[in-house]
Every structure is written in structure tokens, then in C-alpha cells.
Amino acid sequence: MAPLDLDGETLGAKRKNYNKLLKEAIANNETVPSFKLSENDVQNLFNVDLACHNRDVNYILDVFKCGDMLCVSRAISQSTWLITEQQYSNIINPEYIQKELYPHMCTKAYIKLHKNIRLNIKDELRAEQFYLQETKKTEAIKWLPYCSVTFIGNKIREHFDHINIRIWKRLCERSINIFEIVFEHSQRYKSHQYAHAVLFLLKVDLDKYLDLLEKDQILPKFNDKATHVIMKKSPQRVFDKFHVYMNSIDVATFSKYLKPEEIFTFLCTQINKDANSTLHVYRSLFDYDTLKHFVRRMPKDEQFDFVKKVFIVKQNADIPDDNLVEGTEAYFLRKMHNYGSSPSYLWYRFATFERAFEDITQMLDKGVSHWDKNHMLKVLVLCANNNMKHIYTLLDYYIETNKNESHSNKFHFTTEVLKGTSIYKYDEKTWNKLNELFNSMMIYDEGLINIHYNECLFRESIIIYKVIHDEKVPEVIENRFQFNTLQKYVTKLNEEQGEKVFRYLYDRLLGQFKPIKEEVDLLESVNQIKRILKLLKDWNKELQDYSNVLDKIKELIKIRETNSWKHDLSSIYNFKKSWRRLMFEESIVMHPSEAVCLNALKHDPRLLERYNNEIQELRVKDTIYMRKLLSKFRTFWSRTLAKNWAEAYLHDLIERNDQDSKKKASVRGLCTILTQEPFSDIVEKYKPAQAKIDWNTVDDHVLNIQRFVAKNMHRARPQPPPDSILAYAKGDYLQFALPSLIAIFYNLNISQSKIYIPKLLDAPVSIQKHGIRFAYRKLNDKDSSTVFLNCWKSSKNVSIRAIIFKFTHELLCKETHPDRAVALWELIEMFIDSLTFGEDKKIYELLAGVDKIPINVRANYLMKCYKFMNSLIVNAKETDRDQYIALRSNLIWHSRQIMERLCPNFVVDLIEEHVDDTFFESKGNGMHVYVATGIVPVLSAYVLCTKDENLQIQRYEQVLLPILNRALTMWEESRDGHFYIRSNFMNLINQIQTDLRDYAVENNMNIPLKMFMNIQTELHKSLSLTKNYVLLTRWKLMVALTVLVEKAYPDLKDWMNITKKNAPEFGKLCLQYLKEDVTTYMPCIYKLFSEALNQVISLLQDDEKKEIYDAFLSDEDFIQGYLLTIQMNGSLRNNEELKEKLLSHPSVEVKMHYYDQHQPNSRYLF
């Protein structure tokens, strides 16, 4: 088939001709021969489109494998049927793509195809196959929205850390159940964002959505539309829980769902609720900004009466509390007044102007602060409500009573008047009064330059009034008027008034042009044109109706060209998109850019020829890369514009001059506009003969060409073969070739990678690094492991070894198959064995990265790394030792996470090695063992990490008991006044206690009752009860709790359920122990007992704690039980039932302790 040559002058005409030829070929049932890339882009596209229409699958698959992204992109976009139709599922499936297509597709093509499949696949089962094929979690989650709801629910838990808002919304669109799963596990700081992103669920399942939000006490801000949906579907929910929703819903919208006669009752209902826990809500409710929405819903004649009684007259405010009967109107009005905090004068917004004017002026006459005065006057302005009579009254009052007022206060009042009223509605009488105020502020004074920021508002108002009333604007106002289109009046004025104001502004701007003698004058004229254009735009005028403006623009262009000035005119051209067509002929001069040239192709390509000088200047600019334009030339004007521009670029390239910018632009242009063969000739012509540059004899002209060819050859389509860039990527030329080297090798398909990556690995170190990186990215794990092993053996370069170790470590971390993980671990183990103490520090840092190592080899990895780090610390420089000790500490801490898999002897040696320096040594200055990184968490985990009681006791006696005995022996030792052994011992006790829940029960280990009892025996044997009552009582309670946990453990494996079942019984035991101690020692022992109990019940939830408090309050005659409950941390927080029990006790002592501990700020409630 002969190469296609499209008729037509413009881009649209050529495309029309192309579509015509394609339709004819389809009508004639033409077919395409086997795939072969042509130098003619149109021919290639034609064949691809025809093959896509004919559903020639083999041809399309061959296109996918070619390196020309123009053809690949067209084939992918035009063959959607290949993805959507079930009959082609044997091709579009993970296995076929991975085995048959991926090895032969360049990277960019594969990514594009992969994304297109994801966007168009409709079959949920096939989408699930693609999900399962992904090895990266971040990529896999992109497939989830296309999978079945059941599948999403099963897999979403693996992606809590990978969900972004876009995917989150799409997942929730599938099912609200996904919202429930994710929301319950999301971090709190994300919850508001997540909840707000899926407000559409209000229309899907409102009740479930709100139930979940209420459960976690996380409510997003609901706008008016969302509030409307809530109130329409579930109004009673909000009425009943208004204190929950008040700060989240749009109150103005909510108030519309209350009938006028229901408003007062609703407010009383809110008041009647318990205010102690929601005081802040009600204070907000009765502030002006919130309550005004409810007041406006009341009958008009009742609004002011209501606010007057509550906030102005403050009816019932002085009645003693004892005289108020709960539930009466007086009671509610008093409560509302107490909650409200807005100034009383704000509520006059609901009064008539006459009433507001009378009362507020009386307040003003008595004297108020400037701040209150200004706000009172603002209320009067708003009450005037554009009524000219009222405005006149207010202005007259102000002028008469404020003759000696400062300019600043006058400015403030006048500003509020102008903002709160419509100047264009003023009658002559009112205007004259306002003008009197202007005169008092000397607005018309020519000699006074007032710099107050609101003066511009005054001038605008004067201009508006004068113009619409056909009066002359004072010259002083005109002169001081800063440019402003007065757009805010466009929709306010009627047609006649608007035209007057527009014409005034337009004529004024048009008359301000000055003669242009210098370039600075041109700049000012350009700015003046922009002001006129803004005026036209803001007043909805069209530029074509104002020919004198267009003529002025052309005049400026001519003046600029005549004087060879360079001032930019693009701001005029781009001012409004629809106006650009009026400046089409001048567009290249005004805005020389790729976008303008592309526009010329659409409407008149000969424009490029008419402005050849400007185009030549644009073509050689190295700051502009016209890829889209050159691509259009190459495809649609291959024999004309493309040829001419290519010749121009070649001329600039070979021309000897000192302008590097021309060389850069020329090479980039040739990369884009030339087809593969002629560009390959240029690459071949300028490839370096030697790797080293002799800077004394080198031809700078040729070197510049080589430099830019090496940097930019990757921009060619299709990209040059790897051999082309390898000819440049050597010696001194590597620095130039690096961008192209990375881009070309990144884009290689797998088959090519296996051929060319070894060439990089045989190169010098500077290139070998990139070869290793490409091996990691492009080869499979087996092949890349082989490459890494060979390079490790052959290289002693520390940077090469660091890169190899890093990528091998990453391979191991992302491996999910156990057998492959073992193979990779063996490789890394060999690397560790051959490490020296002079490697790159990055390797040592990676050794401490244990948490992502596959679990089946993690223990071996940790033990190996720990052994090496010990040796490294001994042989390291003093300056590096602390860093390596910190890395080793991370390994020690992580051993706790995999204790079951570690060799017991290794753990015992580890504890014995570090127990002296981290437990029995003081660090000075009051510092002691730091639990998070010390040996304490490891020791606790070791003795608890067993399911056999005998083995646990063996570990206790072998490891923990000697440490306990030694610590108890040193109990009285101190340094610098600090009992460091006691402090470390308490850290150990705290850790073991916490690990009963978080380690033993959580991991289904043995309940350590026998061990805890042995510890209790040792404590009682070694410590004095008098000096250590809290510790001994604490452990006594801990043993009691553990007995109950062990009893429930066979049936219940969850800590929360275990403690929930046993909390009442534990509470009874605690009460019994307290009674015994009160009898044995003294009544006030409850204070020490409460301290011990607080430390134990920190393991329990609030509901379980409440059960224990209830046990202490079960015996009304045992007053110490009540006093202990009051003493406990947080015992009364949000627990009204408990408060009631305490306050109902007849003992004055109980009440006194209660008020002292839990209501220190009660006097501030009202």
C-alpha cells in the first residue's frame, strides 16, 4: 500500500480527510498486511485503526510490542473491545499478559495497557485475577474497586495503610459495608477526612452511616445539602441527639424543619437535658450566631419579645435559684440567659428600627466603649434595612451627636452604612445627609491626602450616585479614584443605571492613554488596555463590539515592532479565551508559544509562514520544547512543514556559533520531528571516538552537539536502541548521556533487558551502579539474584556493594513465597558473612531493618545481624559507635516480636549480655533503663512466651528469678539520691503486668499464674510491708486478677471478654482486701490501696472499671469503699450513675471528699 498523504490545509481538514479514507477502506473490506512500522505516521495510524475495526487481534498484539508509543497508544485506545468482551479473556488475563506480552512490551506501553485494562474491565472475576497477580500492595488496591463486594470485604484489611481518598470514595460506592470495615480501623486523625469524603452515603444508607459516626463520636461537617438529606430521612435522630449533631450540621437548614410554634419547646427540651457534660454545646447554642436561625423561625411578632425577655430585659435573672421551679417558663428563660454570652444589643436585630433606635441611642447616650458603640451603630444600620427614612434618621442622629468624633470612628460608621445599604437607592434628602458626613471627614478636600483603607469605598459610592443621577463627579474624587471596574454593582443596577456607570468608566479609561515615547510608556499603555479588557469582561461586554480597543491593541503591536522593543503582550492575548480569535493574525507576535502555533494549524497554517522571523526566533529558544507542535508536523505535514523545520534545525545544528541554546533547541527539535532512520544517522555521525575528552584539542562545536545528542536522544520516537546510548555513555561523556541512558534502559522490555543489562555490568563502576539498579527493576527475582551474587563476588567497591545489598534486602522484604524467601535469605546471609567493618554505613543501617523481613526467615536474619553488629561495635570508630549501638538496640527490641521463633539459648545469652549495663547500672542524672529499647521488654516476652507452665517456671528460675533476687538485694542502693534499682524493677513489673494482656493472652500463651505467685512470694520474703505497701498490695491484686483470668481462659481467649466476665468478682475481692487492711492497719489506708488498685486496673476498659467501683459502693456502711472510689483516677468521668450513688450517701465526709476531688470549678457553671 502506498504511503498516505492527507489532503487539506488545516489540521481539521486533514483529519476529516483521514476519516474519509478510513471509512472507504472499511466499506471496501480492506485488510492490513502483517505489522511493520513505516516511516509514515499517518500510514501507521491508518493500519492500526483499520486493524482495530477489523478486530485483527494478532496485528494489535504486534503493535503492543512495538516501540512506537504513537501506534501503541492508538491501538490501546481503539481496542477497548479486547478488554471488555468475554471472548478475548484468553488474551486479557494476568497469566497471558505476564508470559506472552509483558516480556516483549516496552515499559511505557505495558503501564498504559495495564491502566487501560483496569479502567475498562467490567467482569469482577477477571478484575480479582489481576488483583491477585499484583505483588505490590499499592498497585493491587487500584484493582479493588472493580472487584466484587465480597472480595473487597475480604481483602480491604490488607490495605488500611494504602487507601487514598480517591480509592476510598470508589470503594464506598460499591458498598457501605466497606465504609464500616475501614472506618472502624482508621486512625482517628484520618476519620473526619474519610467520613466527609463519602457524604454520598447519606443517600445510600443514612441510618447505618450515622450509626457508625455516632459510635466513634466522629462527625464531619455537614453542609446545607447534607443536612437537608439527614432531616428529610431521619429528623427524629437529630432532634433526640441535637447535642451530638449541633456543631456538625448546618443549623440554618436544621431550623427550617421545626415549625414556628415548636421552636420554644425545642429550646426548652435542650435546656432540660443534663448540662454538666455538654455545657460547651449549650453555650454555643444560645450565642447570637447560632440562635438567630431559630429565632427567625418563630412567628414574626414573637421574635423580639422572646429575645427581649431572655437577653435584653433578662427577665428572671435575679430570682434566687431556690425560688425557680424546674420545668417552668421562668426556669427555662433563666437557663437560656445563663448560657448566652452575646452582647444584649445584638438581639435588637429582631426589633423594629424604631424600637432598636430608641433603646440603643439611650445606651449610647449613657456612654459605652468605642468597640461597643461601633457595633451598636452597625446593628442600627442593619435594622434600617435600606429604608431611606430610617437611614436618614440614623445619619442625622450620628451627625448631631458625634460632631467631635474622631475621623477614625466616623470612617468606621460610614463604612458600615455604605456596606449595609444600597447607595443607588438613595433619594436626594438621604444623599445630602450622607454627603454632609463626607464633608465632615474632608473627603472632598483637595489638600488632604487621606490614606484610610476605606476611602476608596467612599469614592466609589460618590461616583455611583453622581453617575446614575447624571451629575458631574467632583474632579478631586475622579483624580483619587483608583482603577476599579465596580463589578459588584453589575447585578444590582437596572439596565439604564448599569449602562451609565459602564460608559463612564469606559470613557474615562479610554481617555487616559498617553503618547508612547519610551518603552516604559508602552508598558503603561499595555496595563491600560488590560484595565479596559477587565472592565469589558466584568460588565459582560464583548470585545468585538468595541473596535477602537482592538485598533489600540494593533497600534501597540506596531509601535513595539517599529522600536524593536521586547515587552511581553501575552497577557492581553490570553485575557479571555473567546477573545483570542479576534487577535488571531497578531497571535504569534503577541504570544509566541507552542499553543499559538498549534492554534494556527487548526485555522490557518500559513500564519507560520507570514511570521517566519518570529517563528525562527521561537524555534531556537532552548526554554521552549514544542513537542506537541513538532509531533503534529511529523504526522500531518511530513512533506512540508516537518521537512522545512527539520532542515532549519539541521542548519542551526551545523552552523558554527557560540549559541549553545540554538544547539540544544535544534537537537531536541530533531529528536521529535525526524523519523527513526535519519535521526539514527545523526546519532551515529556524532558518537564519540574516544571515551576521554582532550580538553585542549577538542572541537567545542562538535562537543556541544555530542553533549546535546547524548542528553536528548531518549526523546526520539521510537527511542534509539540501547547500543546508540551506550556509544555515548562512556568516560567523560557519561555525565551528558545519563538522562538518556536511564530513560532508554527504563523503557526496555524484558527480552532486551536480558541482553543489554550485562553490558552495563561489565562497564566501569559509574555505569555498573545503573546496571544493578536496572537488574533489580527489570529482571525477575531469580535472574536479579544471580546478577547480584556475581557482582558481589567480583567487586570490592563499597558503593557497588551497598547498592547490591540494598536491592537484595528489598527483594527479600517484598517476597511472600516461603521457599523463595529462604533462597534470598541464604544469599543475604552469604553477603553478611563476607561483610567487612569498612562497608558503606547504609548496609549497617539496613541490617537493623527487621520488621519487613519475611516471618519464616526473620529469626535467622535477626540473630545473624545481631552477631555481626556486636563485632562491628567492637571494631568501629569511636565516632560511629553510638550509632551502631542504637541499631543493635533496635534488633534487641525486635527480638520480642518474634520470640517464639528465636533460639532460646540466643535469647538467654542476649539477656545476660545486657542485663548488667541496662538494668543494674545507673546512667546518672536520675536516668534509668529505657524500657522501649532496653532489655526489659525482651525479658518479659521471654518468660511469658510459652504455652507450657513447666517450661515457663524453668525460664523463670533460670533467667528472671536471679534478676529479681539481685534487684531485691540492691533495693536500698541509690546514686545521686536516686533509687535506680527500684525504678528499673518497677519498669520490669509494669512490663510483665501489661504483657499479661498484650503478650500472653493476645498470643494464646500460658497464663503465668504460678510464676506470678512465685514473684509474690519473693517480694513478701524480701521487702518490708511498711515501706512497700503499694507494691506488695499491687502484686497481691495482680495475682488475684490472674487467678480469675486463668479460670476463664479455656473458654474465652479475648482479654476484653475475660475481664468483662470477671470484673464483678474481682471487685468483690478488692473490697474484701480493703476491708481486711482497714481492720489490720488504719481507716485511711484506702489512699495507698487506691494507688495500688489504679496501677492494676489500668489493664481494664472503662466498663469493667465501673463494675469494680460498683463493688466498693455495694456496702453503704463501709465508708472507705466510697472514699476509695472518689480517689480513683477518672472514676467519675462521664459516669452519672456513680455520681448519684456517691452524692446520695448520707455521710458528710463522702460529700466533702467528692466536691473537693471532682468539682473544683463548680462555682463557674453559672
TrEMBL record:
<protein>
    <submittedName>
        <fullName>Uncharacterized protein LOC113503217 isoform X2</fullName>
    </submittedName>
</protein>
<feature type="coiled-coil region">
    <location>
        <begin position="529"/>
        <end position="556"/>
    </location>
</feature>
<keyword id="KW-0175">Coiled coil</keyword>
